[in-house]
Specification:
Length: 155
């Protein structure tokens, strides 16, 4: 048995204002659990992405998220849950005027190959991306695999 208070956990840098590693704190072996708080316009993810071998579920506790999906945009409101199969592309965005609170579940914890797409201004289209740590360690960067341009910086 393990128990944690979410507010006591670390806040990981990334696209969300708050991202707390709940599963890591509990020691879950087969399931990743993350708690997010998003400002309007923020996302739980670095881009439009899919995990080859991982199921993902998002439970919206407060607010409204809009998910870009392979079936078009889908709104997920307070008290609603959305599921993505392994390999299914998606990206959330806080579509409301206030903060959103979201619990994200992913299983197994090792999601396998990550497909990550973002708009690259230099390439003029959405391209494959990699996530890197900045030289000073103060931010995570998304970098276009095609041309090497930085497309996002998240601290
Ligand atoms: Zn590019």
């Amino acid at each position: 048995m393990e128990k944690v208070a979410i507010d006591d956990l670390d806040n990981w840098m990334g696209p969300a204002d708050v991202k707390r590693p709940v599963g890591k704190a509990l020691g879950t072996e087969h399931m990743g659990i993350r708690f997010y708080e998003l400002e309007p316009g923020e996302s739980t993810a670095f881009g439009y992405h899919a995990h080859a071998d991982q199921e993902e579920v998002f439970y919206v506790l407060d607010g409204t998220l809009s998910f870009e999906t392979e079936d078009g945009d889908v709104e997920v409101g307070e008290g609603e849950v959305i599921y993505f199969e392994p390999g299914e592309l998606q990206q959330s965005r806080n579509a409301g005027d206030g903060r959103a609170r979201v619990l994200g579940l992913g299983a197994p914890t090792d999601g396998g190959d990550l497909t990550l797409l973002r708009e690259c201004e230099d390439c003029g289209e959405r391209t494959d991306q990699e996530i890197e740590r900045s030289d000073d360690g103060e931010a995570l960067l998304t970098v276009c695999v095609e041309c090497g341009s930085e497309t996002g910086r998240f601290s």
